């Protein structure tokens, strides 16, 4: 072997160095100061969000009740206006679906099911739901989740690439173990982190917009009562109801101070 050959990095080393460079370039902070990695360009994420939202609008019936739509748009506008920095255009739609759920997509797309409106029965409670979804968007959670999934897929591809016997039972067992480990060790915990972060960001945002943050506790108690059952927190993509309420209660004094300041500053949304 020549000196040049000895100094030539292996394929695995090249991949590792490339991966490290990408991670360093993509490292940033969420609005709460948490370190996060996002590899997908914002424009591409926004395009994904818009395409998905348009597909849902075509595939699912949308509520046409003008009173409800005006209320939802009023609450959304008040929340968006209270954001510390502009975040582009926002769209919100109410879908005819009795499942108590809401979602957010990159690019400022928000969907609310009619089933959620039966639980979030006041403007303040509905503001808690929408603010939570806005929290997901401004914290770039979709990009972070997609990056995690790409990383898991990349890791499994490396296992296949460097396997001595790709078709062996040992290799297949290793591949499955890596997949399970990534699911429960990375993807689900990060999802719980995202939900908790969106709760706290939403709590601050609704208070800044002039909505009573105490309504968030009422909302999640009602959600807990409406749920027939919930999986163990360890195996769930959401925090347990008890954890969620404890985290919100711990931040309530600070949120109430923001709410009072917003009210004194003239932020008093009329979205009834």
TrEMBL record:
Its cofactor is Zn(2+). It comes from the Bacteria. Gene3D superfamilies: Metalloproteases ('zincins'), catalytic domain. One of its GO terms (molecular function) is metalloendopeptidase activity. Belongs to the peptidase M48 family. This is Peptidase. Keywords: Hydrolase, Metal-binding, Metalloprotease, Protease, Zinc. PANTHER family: M48 FAMILY METALLOPEPTIDASE (PTHR22726:SF24), METALLOENDOPEPTIDASE OMA1 (PTHR22726). The keyword Secreted does not apply.
């Amino acid at each position: 072997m020549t000196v040049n050959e000895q100094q030539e990095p292996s394929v695995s080393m090249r991949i590792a160095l490339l991966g490290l460079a990408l991670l360093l370039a993509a490292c940033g902070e969420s609005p709460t100061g948490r370190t996060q990695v996002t590899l997908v360009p914002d424009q591409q994420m926004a395009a994904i969000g818009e395409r998905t939202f348009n597909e849902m609008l075509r595939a699912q019936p949308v509520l046409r009740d003008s009173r409800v739509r005006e209320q939802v748009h009023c609450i959304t506008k008040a929340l968006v206006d209270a954001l510390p920095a502009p975040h582009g255009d926002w769209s919100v739609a109410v879908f005819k679906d009795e499942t108590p759920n809401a979602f957010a997509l990159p690019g400022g797309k928000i969907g609310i099911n009619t089933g959620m409106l039966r639980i979030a029965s006041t403007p303040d409670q509905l503001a808690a739901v929408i603010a939570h979804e806005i929290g997901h968007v401004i914290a770039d959670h979709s990009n972070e989740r997609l990056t995690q999934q790409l990383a898991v897929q990349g890791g499994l591809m490396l296992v296949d690439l460097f396997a001595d016997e790709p078709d062996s039972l040992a290799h297949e067992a290793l591949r499955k173990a890596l997949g399970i480990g990534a699911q429960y060790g990375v993807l689900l915990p990060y999802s719980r982190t995202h939900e908790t972060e969106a709760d706290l960001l939403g709590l601050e945002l609704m208070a800044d917009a002039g909505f009573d943050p105490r309504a968030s506790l009422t909302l999640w108690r009602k959600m807990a009562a409406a749920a027939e059952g919930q999986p163990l927190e360890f195996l769930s993509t959401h925090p347990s109801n008890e954890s969620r309420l404890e985290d919100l209660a711990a931040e309530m004094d600070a949120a109430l101070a923001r709410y009072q300041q917003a009210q004194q500053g003239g932020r008093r949304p009329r979205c009834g």
